Amino acid sequence: MGEGSGVGRVVRAPVAGRTWREFGYLITGFPLSVLYFGLTVTGLSLGAGLLVTFLGVPVLAGVLAMGRGFGRVERARVRGLLGGKVGEPAPIRARKPGMFPAVGAVLKSGSAWRHALYPVLHFPWAVFGFTVALVFWVCGWSMLLYPLWFWIFPTFTDRSGLVVFQNDSYSFTLDTPAAVAGAAVCGLALTLTTPWVIRALTTVDRVLVTSLLGPSRLDSRVSELESDRGAVVDTAAADLRRIERDLHDGAQARLVALAMDLGLAKEKLAEDPHGAARMVDEAHGEVKVALQELRDLARGIHPAVLTDRGLDAALSSVAARCAVPVAVAVELPERPSASVEGIAYFTVSELLQNISKHAGAHTASVEVWRAGDRLLLQVSDDGRGGADARAGSGLAGLAGRLDAVDGTLVVDSPLGGGTTVTAEVPWRA
Q1: Is the pLDDT of residue 171 over 90?
Q2: pLDDT tens-place string over residues 85-139
Q3: Where are the alpha helices (DSSP H) in 247-332?
Q4: How many angstroms separate the CA atoms of 392 and 404, rounded?
Q5: In terms of residue numbers, what domain contains 110?
Q6: Residues 325 and 269 both lie in one domain
Q7: What is the domain count for the chain?
Q8: CA dist., res. 326 & res. 342, Å (int)
Q9: Which whole number is the average pLDDT over 352-375?
Q10: Which residues have CB under 8 Å from 4's CB, separation 6+?
Q11: Are strands 364-371 and 326-331 parallel, antiparallel or unpaired?
Q12: 218 vs 278, more confident
């Protein structure tokens, strides 16, 4: 079935919409490239020649700004005709208002210079692509349809058919049934080959547009870091709200009740010593509960055992509080940085909480090891499976927090087959 599907795709390719759009891209690209090349080279030459005067600076800035406009057109053509995904480059921002800072910002922009380089590099390729695509397209279809139009030659000319080759002593004309059929077969081969030739040509155009007219790697990285920073800030704000809620609803409320009980015990001390002693004893129990809540809260912020003894002891402590038995194996040649230890600790803690609450597992395991400059964590259980990090669950939030530090989260959770979550973070953050 796969082979038949492949043959069908080859047969349909010459009349497919994608082929026609790509052919249109190459055909329209040639006159546009001539325009871009002529204006850019003329503008750059004029600007460079005028650099001996002050006029050369704004001329060069104008040419670079014009190149940014050309880039918008080309990105739109790639999106519309080739279906490519090309992002917008970072906007040029001057540090101060005014014409001179704006001109300086344009001249210092690497993106603007890449836009000016594009017409120079693309022009010879546009000529080549236009020529090859047009020759293949015209020759293929004209030869494939030759049996339908070869009658034009004997009807309107003094030739019996299309002359393919001729010299003083020899002439080859497509006028016999065999020659006409052969021409149609050659045309069919060319027609079936043309879409793939065009596709190869437009692939180069995609690369040129993406690398020269799209966002640079630095711009993409800055955007990614800005997004990650937002995720980190949101996570930190959520953690602060959780701590505030836990303090308000837990230890703070208990301490307020404790103060009221001690006040009542103080008032009863003279008239009812036994009742006051009972109330003090109850208050003593409340103090112990409040202290335990504060310890749990402090452990949720940053456990002391992690700072003092490292990941092995800290993860063993977390595993001991899990609802199912957990085997912990930590194999690290040395301790990573404190921030990475914290990330690893809270990642495993959240995954073990998910196991306790949702997995329905009988056993679980935690493995931690180093691979090159990465720290890897793997938490597995034998529960019901079906976990999905894309479903907006806690795993999705955990994946976002790991992504903010250049980490990754991979979830393997077939239904009924248990769950294995592998996290990877940099060794030094």
Answers
A1: no
A2: 888 887 777 777 777 778 888 888 888 889 999 999 999 999 999 999 999 999 9
A3: 253-268, 273-301, 304-309, 311-320
A4: 17
A5: 2-213
A6: no
A7: 3
A8: 20
A9: 87
A10: none
A11: parallel
A12: 278
